[in-house]
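Lab meeting, action items carried over

1. Structure of the two-component assembly. Owner: GW. Status: complete.
Input record:
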Amino acid sequence: MIQFDAVHKRFPNGTTAVHDLSLEMPEGGVTVLVGSSGCGKTTTLRMINRMVEPTSGTIKVNGRDVTQQDAAELRRSIGYVIQQAGLFPHRTVLDNIATVPLLLGWNRKKARARAAELLETVGLAADAGKRYPHQLSGGQQQRVGVARALAADPPVLLMDEPFGAVDPVVRTQLQDELLRLQKELNKTIVFVTHDVDEAVRLGDRIAIFRTGGHLVQCAPPAELLAGPADDFVADFLGAERGLKLLSLQTLADVPQGPAPQGGTWTLVLDPAGKPLHWASKDAELPVRPLTDGDSLLAALNESIASPTGLVARVDAAGVLTGVSSRDDIHVHAGQAHSAARVVAA
Amino acid sequence: MTIDWSWIGDHTDDLTSLTLSHLQAAMTAVFFGLLISLPLAVVAHRVRPLRGFLLGLSNVLFTIPSIAIFVLLLPVSGLTRTTTVIGLTVYTLVVLLRNTVEGLDSVPAKTKEAAKAMGTRPLRTLLTVELPLALPVIMAGVRIATVMSISLVSVATYIGDGGLGQLFTDGFQRDFPTPVIVGVVLTILLAVVADALLVALQYVLTPWRRRRA
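Predicted assembly:
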């Protein structure tokens, strides 16, 4: 757990980067710090590993005041992923990942073996280890950055806009990977971004900062989207925050019924019972079956695209379990929204 | 102007020892130049106010005429190899210091920041991150300093040293061009070979800069 208690940061030029911040970042959870540039989110992150020293107040990591610890040793115990990876251009990928283990005094062989293991963890091919950073794509470099931060298995991971410099497709992949990794590793992660969608996807809790270093609201994403504390938060989350909320809810609780028989459109299945397409007398249209884990937003989208307004639902093996109607999805989406608002209030 | 080839044949031993002595003077100067420049450059790089002063000082030293420097050193170190090396070292400073400072400046802030954030202490960052990344610019300085020193050694003939430069005085005094031509050719050859070796050394030392296999 990371605790900020009445933390202030004033820079020598007189600007206040962080104003009276008290905040708890729970163990094993992802806390996302968001806000426009100059709101103090990066300064807040960097005070945790003493890249920036607070002017007053205390910051504790797992109960220990950071300013009472040797800065270099503290930093080795906290993983750090920087914007555009910040890899060492003169070291191979393997040696980049092995940085902290080597600083901790591991022998080279053990450090490299650990680094090779991490290459696989972050989804890179083993032969990438012998390359130099400039020989990798931006997305691959970012994966190396994550592997380097994880090398000594630190309990806390700080991520400063780590996916800011890659294209949207790669960005989504990296976010998925991070969520997958986090399920296995259960790190206490502090993640800085200015992208609300990224915050909603990744955060267990989202802390919204306003210029001048004021924390405006800190809550789980669904609560935040359903009940923004003030106009600033509402504006920041954007006009589509209702849809963003739906991206957090799953299809699991929406009722389903049997697929229609004998109407204009029939759902054609293969012999195994997997949906193939929608068919009428003279046309065929594609079907995108959804599982219980898919979001209400995806369901709403599919119900609009479907010629019947029905969404085909399948189990993990892809076999049809039933269909849900546009109305059922719509009603459920409305209920999910008001439920979240009640929690927030 | 004709070359007396038999003179060359008769003096191969002398030519070899003069060439080696010439090379040794130049290399020793570059070595000490680096030894002095590295710490000074680190200071100039870290302490901004000292930067202008140190670079300015190395410029001023460079403007002292080479003969004058040897003469000024005579009361200190006499007619010795030491005088030659001190004089040459002073001249190497202007390029070595400037290039080392510029090399350190060229290390991306992001990379230094990453080293710090991983828990690397300043000295280790300097040795394992900053200096290796500054190496290409430092090596460019070493190449210039080496070629410059090789050409300057001859001036030390005035104090009885001077390696291949001794061939020039010999030739002038006897109005005999062969030693002069041989001296010039050997000096150029020495500079070219030394430069090529330094390029090869840099290639070995900076594997990350090689093109993709």
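2. GW to write a short summary for the group page. Key points so far: Chain A has a mean pLDDT of 90. Residues 251-335 of chain A form a domain with the CBS-domain fold (CATH 3.10.580.10).
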